[in-house]
Amino acid sequence: MTSPAPAPSPKLPVSLAANPVLSSWVRFSSDGHVTVSPGKVEIGQGIVTALAQIAADELDVDIGRIRMVRASTAGSPNEGVTSGSLSVQQSGRAIRHACAEIRQIFLAAASDRLGVGCDALEINDGTISGPGNVRTSFWELADEILLDREATPGATPKSSAQRTLAGSSVQRLDIPDKVFGHPRFIHDQALPGMLHGRVLRSELSAAKLTGMNEDGARGVADLVAIVHDGNFAGVVSETEGGAEAALKALRKDAAWSSAETLPDESGLADWLKAQPAESTVIDRRTAAATVARHRTIRRQYTRPYLAHASIAPSCAMAQWSGDRVHVWTHSQGVYFLRADLALVLKLPLENITVEHMEGAGCYGHNAADDVALDAVLLAKAAPGRPVRVQWSRADEMSHAPFGAAMAIEIEADLDLQGEIVDWRHSIWGNGHTARPGRAAQPALLAATELANPFPRMISTNPPQANGGGSDRNSVPLYDFPSWQIQCHRLLTMPVRTSALRTLGAQGNVFAIESFLDELAAERGEDPVAFRLRHLRDERAKDVIRSVAVRANWKPSRRAGIGHGLGFARYKNTGAYCAVVAEIEGAEDISVKRLTLAVDVGEAINPDGVINQIEGGAIQATSWVLKEQVRFDKARITSNSWTDYPILRFSEVPQVAIELIQRPDFEPLGAGEAAHGPVTAAIANAVFDALGVRVRNLPITRERLIAAMELTS
Amino acid sequence: MPRIVFRLNGVETEIDADPDSSLLAILRGPLGMTGAHFGCGANECGACNVIVGDHAVAACDTPLWSVADKDVTTIEGLGNPQRPHPLQRAFIAEQALQCGYCVPGILMSAAALLMQNAKPSEAEVRSALDRNLCRCGSHNRMVRAVLRAAAEMATP
């Protein structure tokens, strides 16, 4: 394969174009440090380290000199939300480009000072030197160079061969703190004078607070305030224990009424298909010539609502000072959260500062933003003092948004030889995003609970240009002669949904790759050969060939063991990933081994990429084998780890990853590439082992039995 | 308030508190030791695991009175950057985490395992960590790190 030659960027990277002032990204101090300020945030994916690598590489300074700044609306570039596996693509490109230009600016200044042409100068760990032993440094020049200027499109970053750090597995900067238990998470912060808040929420969905007796809570020691505004209620206490005790008292004396009916969990696909919906044709391909259809095969696949189920309950801190409020949050988008807070509080943006602090992995839009508004509302009752609010495990598992349930129907027309001549893919489900900061109404939970409530935001889907939502990965990568892809986005939303890792891609890839496997099996054709025959993209073929080699495809048959293949290019524009799953079992499926081949273009930190892919593969295994949000007519019932089990150490498969390095291609995010292919590979391996197609996730014993009954 | 006395990371510690308080609330609140993390409050996730005597327990489900006169070890007492425990060194060497919120609890479960079984098999490590949840999918790296630490500790 030929590599494209590095060329000057014709235009600025998108994040840099939106935030062109160089000093908003990078600043130098005379004491020998470089401060790098990305708009993206650390959510356990190692982005801060990868971005530091990029900056250190482009500037020729030791990575130990880089100080990474946490995003804040007080000064960070606005890079929207940290999501969609775009951080390295967006922030990384912006920082690389900005640093390339800054390097040129410093070289020009050094050239003036030293009387040596730029071409004769070299930079080594920030020291700029030239012939005749003349030298200066970034640190010496820092005060005289003004970076408060806009980036220009002309700067040329280094070629891949000139980089020394990108492409190497630098150890993550945040890991030592985390293994020594140093307070790094928002949960572990103690601000001077900090109070503790708790919010009272019913287990009923969208419940109305019909009565609340405050007497019990008022008698609890350390109480500072009880807040009650419509259906929103909470307590503020001098101590965390006091807040818990006051909440318990308040809960005991609160009366609620149910305001919403949840769908019938056992008939979810029918319910999804019966709801009022906005229908959109996502993509259509028309065949050059019509081929006679011999027969049509139709299959339906479903996935349940999935919980983000962060290991940490969501947490935030807020502190009012007059009509200004400072918020500490583990939100994925500090500017977007600020916009929503401004809507709820009816305050100008400049009165609100939102600062990021690390939380546990969130895997999408969980309750991080919701709890920030909770903290802001409770902190109002204690002006001047910071209030820390933390959700309970039960609230985290039942009131945070979920990943949307999906019903997907695929129909294929086959010709006389069994070749696919037309392909129709239809999706029913709620939209996959109701993130804050995008609409004229807030997306935050408490905003719907106030005495003057905002309506609950109905989830929408990002446009296809951004990878789509329900429709993410629904357009086939396979070269079928014609197709039509349709999306039916629900206009009702009794179960609250928003962005969960991969949005609709996991469901769509599961459906497409399962269906292809069915068609290949029916033809008696090898699934690897069948896919390769329908693909034109060489990088796609490469990951499939690589995984086939690495997994010794296809291993010889053994009783009770099955092997399955899955493939996707995330969002059709991101990372390529192919997976072979090996499973064992008859009633309870256990995934023994996952072999993956991945192409993320330039891997800035290969070990970081492997860590993300491996984590994604294991999380997807958990989704496939165990996870579904449970509910009855009135409430989410899976509100503990017992009722929402996830994969445990003894159940985790071995994972082997082949990383195909392409240093001359744009770096692509790795965090969401594995989920869809792993899901499909496991389902296909179950068929290989048992001859049973499970088309409704998760693949539990009950679902297997149901699928067997359907087969027999 | 009654006074409870125990040894916290080797230091004699006295605390005047409700004996029914959870050990986790006492550690994180009045004692300001935030290494043990709150995850569920119901002994279901392991994020708050600490070692009492030589067993890993969920601090959220351990009443203060039950540790009276006992040895309690938290992540802060396991090691520090100057004198890291082999497990902490191994977790760094293997880059054995993503978000890291579950890690203190997992390190304490692993440390308790190595106190009782210096040469665990991979299956024994997985079994010892089975009550600890990790949502990021870093399990295999963590298992490798525990085995690495065990090997290092076995080398004289």
Give a quick rundown of the structure.
The complex is a heterodimer of chains A (712) and B (156). Chain A has 712 residues and is α+β, with helices and mostly antiparallel strands. Chain A contains 17 helices and 26 strands.
What does this structure look like?
- The complex is a heterodimer of chains A (712) and B (156).
- Chain A folds into 3 domains: 14-177, Aldehyde oxidase/xanthine dehydrogenase, molybdopterin binding domain (Aldehyde Oxidoreductase, domain 4, 2-Layer Sandwich), CATH 3.30.365; 188-258 and 309-398, Aldehyde Oxidoreductase, domain 4 (2-Layer Sandwich); 402-432 and 468-711, Aldehyde Oxidoreductase, domain 4 (2-Layer Sandwich).
- Chain A is built from 17 helices and 26 strands.
- Chain A is globular and about 80 Å long.
- Chain A starts with 13 loop residues before the first helix and ends with a helix.
- Residues 1-9 of chain A have low confidence and may be disordered.
- In chain B, strand 1 and strand 2 form a beta hairpin.
- The model of chain B has no long low-confidence stretch (mean pLDDT 97).
- Chain B is of the alpha+beta class.
- Chain B is 35% helix and 15% strand.
- Chain B has a 5-stranded mixed beta sheet with strand order 2-1-5-3-4.
Rg calculated over all Cα atoms of chain A: 27 Å
User: How much helix is in the residues of chain B?
Assistant: 25-40%
Number of domains of chain A: 3
Low-confidence segments of chain A, given as residue ranges, are 1-9
Question: What is the name of the CATH topology of the largest domain in chain A?
Answer: Aldehyde Oxidoreductase, domain 4
Arithmetic mean pLDDT of chain B:
97
Spatial order of strands in the largest sheet of chain B: 2-1-5-3-4
Count of domain modules of chain B: 2
Tally of helical segments of chain A:
17
- Counting DSSP E segments of at least 2 residues, the number of strands of chain A comes to 26
Q: How large a portion of the residues of chain B is in β-strands, by DSSP E? A: 5-15%
Low-confidence stretches of chain B: none
| Shape designation of chain B | globular
Query: What is the spatial order of strands in the main beta sheet of chain A?
Result: 9-10-7-18-15-16-17
